[in-house]
Amino acid sequence: MYATTCPLSMPTSRRGRGRVLAATLSAMIPRDPRDLLRIRPDVKRALASGAAVVALESTVVTHGLPFPHNLAAARRSEAAARRAGAVPATIALHSGRIRIGLDDDELADLAAARDVPKVSRQNLAGVLGTPGWAGTTVSATMIAARLAGIAVFATGGIGGVHHGGERTLDVSADLDELARTPVAVVCAGPKSILDIGRTLEALESRGVPVVAWRSDEVAGFYSRSSGFRAPLRVDDAGEAAALILRHRALGLASGILFTVPLPEEAALPREVVIDVVARASAEADEAGIRGPASTPWVLSRVAELTDGRAVEANVALLEHDASVAGAIAIALAGADGVDLEAATT
Fold first, then answer.
1. Cβ distance 42 to 89 under 8 Å?
2. Are 145 and 91 in contact, with CB atoms under 8 Å apart?
3. Where does 34-343 sit in CATH, by number?
4. Burial of 27 (0-12, 13-18, 19+ CB in 10 A)
5. SS3 letters for the chain?
6. Pick from 168, 167, 230: nearest CA to 196
7. Does this model's pTM top 0.85?
8. Rounded to an integer, what distance in angstroms lies between the CA atom of residue 98 and that of residue 127?
9. Angle CA(154)–CA(137)–CA(233) in degrees, nearest 5?
């Protein structure tokens, strides 16, 4: 490929070499960020027609769950969005392109991949310059969804302020992304390993609406409740869509965070979650595991300490979040052309 884009002999003058370098870079670097996207055909058709599309992240596949649970969770999430009437679009990076929607073979390849980069805003451009697969966090998935024109995104749990984060500054980029990228994020609340109180304070400071789904409390990820009261509440997809439309009408640039309790039959008691998370986090500290590696390590240890019940809960909440996101996306697609005055009454 190099021989087709560069002359056989390099000019000797500095100006000549500069022109050749500029021409080579021009051929390699997209002029429009959307040129970096590769959108699955059915997703592209849905977006063009204004139909409902739900974005799904991929770090749960690459880092969040062990194989084959990761593949099963990804397939169940996509199926749940489809049952709700939306088109699912799992987002990942592959060899210089942001993939918006994977087919089943690609999903299986991603689930089986090893030593896969975990991509957030800070390394997104860098990882796009490398070969192979990469998993997108909430932050990177929100960026990709916005570029593709997808308004609703389902995930398991968001990142946030880690315990001791006021000293270590170990705070997820997800929080700043929610403050700056206008995508509705449907999740089961902040991950249970986090300092939930400080995470909610950080979201409030950043102007991010936190909305509980059919509950007065913020969802607790592995358990149905976090013990923290939610600032806002919606009870159905129509209310959620109307809130998104009002947010848009005000010109607010942030995302909206919807927290959805996982199904009761899959939930763990909150007291059990608090105990095992504290134990796993202490073990991580003793082992010197910090930074991006800490979350997957602690979640894996929590799964061990709960004899796999945490994995079952994680898969269930991912599926349920995708179903609720699909319903919201359907309502939003149907409401996008309605009179905003009617939507605000």
1. no
2. yes
3. 3.40.1790.10
4. exposed
5. CHHHHCCCCCCCCHHHHHHHHHHHHHHHCCCCHHHHEEECHHHHHHHHHCCCEEEECCHHHHHHCCCCHHHHHHHHHHHHHHHCCCEEEEEEEECCEEEECCCHHHHHHHHHCCCCCEECHHHHHHHCCCCCEEEECHHHHHHHHHHHCCCEEECCCECCEECCHHHHCCECHHHHHHHHCCCEEEECCECCCECHHHHHHHHHHCCCCEEEECCCECCECCECCCCCECCEEECCHHHHHHHHHHHHHCCCCCCEEEECCCCHHHCCCHHHHHHHHHHHHHHHHHHCCCHHHHHHHHHHHHHHHCCCHHHHHHHHHHHHHHHHHHHHHHHHHHHCCCCHHHHCC
6. 230
7. yes
8. 10
9. 35
**Alpha-carbon distances, residue 127 vs 13, 92, 189, 308 (angstroms):** 33, 11, 28, 32
The CA-atom distances, in angstroms, between 149 and each of 21, 153, 282 are 33, 11, 41
For the chain, how long is the longest CA-to-CA vector? Answer: 72
Return the bridge partners of 190, or none: 158
- In terms of Cα–Cα distance, which of 121, 281, 264, 111 is closest to 192? 281
Cα 178 → chain centroid: 10
CATH 3.40.1790.10 domain residues, the chain: 34-343
Give, for all 345 residues of the chain, the pLDDT tens digit: 434 444 445 555 666 656 655 554 454 566 777 789 999 999 999 999 999 999 999 999 999 888 999 999 999 999 999 999 999 999 999 999 999 999 999 999 999 999 999 999 999 999 999 999 999 999 999 999 999 999 999 999 999 998 877 777 888 999 999 999 999 999 999 999 899 999 999 999 999 999 999 999 999 999 999 999 999 999 999 999 999 999 999 999 999 999 999 999 999 999 999 999 999 988 988 888 877 777 788 888 999 999 999 999 999 999 999 999 999 999 999 976 544 344 333
Catalogue the active-site residues. Answer: 57, 191
Residue with tokens 């060899």: 95
